[in-house]
Write a structure and sequence with these properties.
Blueprint lengths: L2 H12 L1 E4 L7 E4 L1 H5 L1 H11 L10 E5 L2 H13 L2 E7 L7 E8 L2 E8 L8 E9 L3 H12 L3 E10 L14 E6 L1
Parallel strand pairs: 3-4, 3-7, 7-8, 8-9
Antiparallel strand pairs: 1-2, 4-6, 5-6
Helix pairs in contact: 1-3, 3-4
Length: about 180
């Protein structure tokens, strides 16, 4: 088994399944054991940035809240700016907002109106792709600002929820798929 495959297997084994959180019937994928292991956390960042070099992207957009952890580290590695997409009411400046449905409710996310620029190259990063609503809302927000999404990366994908269908035409990668 290659070092790459071993790392992916170790990441998958470290992800903890928490039944009935935050609601009954939800199988929550807990990434905190991955974050607590420096090798696995660094490995996630290395795998997300594989094939991307500094200068390929202008901004890394991270989605509230666990996506911030990976996106900020990815932005540092790529020498790119970090931009948060936050839940409604959490950003202090003028924002654009987008509402969406998720696997257990609905929500609204926002981005500062000056967060990225026309023609900026953006890598969108989040910890989990489930139904795709959150990521699709973030894509809409970035697009509204005139930036180009050059990739969408997740640590985990719940493929059975078909979230990729809400992100047509975008290059999507996930480290671990369930």
């Amino acid at each position: 088994m290659s070092e790459h495959q071993t790392l992916l297997q170790d990441i998958q084994q470290a992800i903890r399944n928490v039944p009935d959180f935050p609601k009954p019937g939800i199988q929550f994928k807990d990434i905190t054991p991955v974050l607590a292991d420096a090798r696995l956390f660094a490995g996630c960042v290395d795998l997300i940035t594989h094939g991307i070099k500094p200068g390929d992207v202008d901004f890394v957009v991270g989605i509230d809240a666990r996506g911030f952890i990976f996106a900020a580290a990815v932005a540092l590695k790529l020498k790119a700016g970090f931009v948060p997409v936050r839940k409604k009411g959490k950003l202090p400046y003028s924002t654009h907002e987008e509402s969406y449905d998720l696997e257990y409710g609905s929500n609204t996310v926002a981005i500062h109106t000056d967060a990225v620029h026309q023609g900026s190259r953006v890598l969108l990063v989040d910890d989990l792709l489930a139904t795709g609503g959150t990521a699709a809302a973030a894509v809409q927000l970035v697009g509204r600002l005139g930036a180009d999404i050059v990739g969408v990366s997740f640590v985990i994908e719940l493929a059975f929820l078909k979230g990729r269908a809400k992100l047509p035409g975008l290059p999507i990668s996930a480290l671990v798929t369930y």
